[in-house]
Amino acid sequence: MKRSIPGPMFLILATCAALLLIGAAKVGDTAPNFTATASNGKIVHLSDYSGKYVVLEWHNKGCPYVGKQYNSGNMQRLQKQWTARGVVWLTIISSAPGKQGYVTAGEENAYLAKMQAAPTAALLDPTGEIGHLYDAKTSPHMIVINAQGTVIYNGAIDDKPTTDLGDVPGATNYVSLALEQSLAGKQVATPATRPYGCSVKYSDSSH
Amino acid sequence: MRRCDTASVFPARFTIAFALLLCAPAAPAIAAPIPHGTLELFAENSWVTPGHDFSLGLHFQLEKGWHIYWINPGDSGEPPRVTWQLPNGLTAAPIQWPVPRRLGTSSIVDFGYQDAVMLLVPMHADASLATKTPAQIAGEVKLLVCRELCVPGKAQLSLTLPVNPEAPVPEARTRDLFAATRKSLPRPAPARWSFRVDDTKDSFELIASGGSHIASAAFFPLAESQIDNSAPQKVVPRAAGFRLTLRKSDQLLKPIQHLNGVLVLSADRAYVIDAPVGEHAAAGASASGVGSH
Known about the structure:
heterodimer, A: alpha+beta, Glutaredoxin, two-stranded antiparallel ribbon, 9 strands, 28% helix, disordered N terminus, B: mainly beta, Immunoglobulin-like, 2 domains, eight-stranded mixed sheet, 19 strands
């Protein structure tokens, strides 16, 4: 219930966090709430998922590190595997208009269908507000939030920081490890790593 | 400030070296294409002498605005990686990396090289290396080249060098390029300098003692996820040295014992340092390891 912050208060907090670039998504911190429009047209608040595990996946379809995960089918497999277990999976696109990876809702829906991707929702963040709130650096930067709303993992998708599809099968997936360990009531052994990939293509004017 | 210094000094050196290269007749090495540039493998000497170490150079030339990455790429990207195929008796040591530049925006900062750079590869030639056949050197390089976008690439490099018992002779064609590259490598700090780090809640305070009137400094961490790459690095001059505030990375959850990296004071003063970290580090604790010897 920690995430049920009143709307106006949330806006002020979120704005401050974004402006100050404080480590809002540091492991152990309460995940900051946000509101976004999904590619399916729905309005999504992080607080809607209070009581559930949530995975945030920063996405840019033109980035070769993202391509490695989607062309190998790995990201879609993870989305299906974890949403089947009640985990909420939010794909977030923080590319600004005109930048690599920027998509309209229609383009994103076509991409999701073509790739057979299965996130709970794909969130459009063209202003970079959510990206900056979480200080997302790369695609794919991954964050895992537990049922209490606490960040339990912040970093890379796995331990192979390359664009080679061949590196996917042998990789240790940090997101799955964090979810498995936390759901089993254990401490997350590797709660933070360098989030490798392409830089998030934020608007030039925001920060 | 630092960005301008490096931009004005290093490319100038390289430009001269390139001009010399272009004038050289019958270049034996062929530049391999990489995304938005070329990559060439050079040997420092005209032949390999058994028992004498030498260097190879991986010479990257990139289209305007494109970059490759340092050993610690910073917030995004990845450094070039080489897999060597070498004859028995030849071994390659880890790459020696020239001083990088800060690249990126105010919220995402990478460490790398624009325009052109040569990475040095120290080679060991055994005294037992056979002199009858030339040494066939081959390497596969995997790399990422980025500007606004990133393009992964791969290049197959090869070089055939005679093996000759005579004393090694520098290859005239690339002598200036190797000399310029050596100047662009960070050096051990002079013995009069010492470094230590105070660990505060949100930052590392790098305390440098030794020089005077130091008004600008930039630190490039060798390890990932220790400092916040995009945070401004605040320099406060001290009577004999300076204090540099380095904000901690959000990804850093455990204390560290050492802060290793490259400290750039000006275009021609870049030092490899290994500074001990302590909550109340003893005054006068000296730099240790690679930085001071």
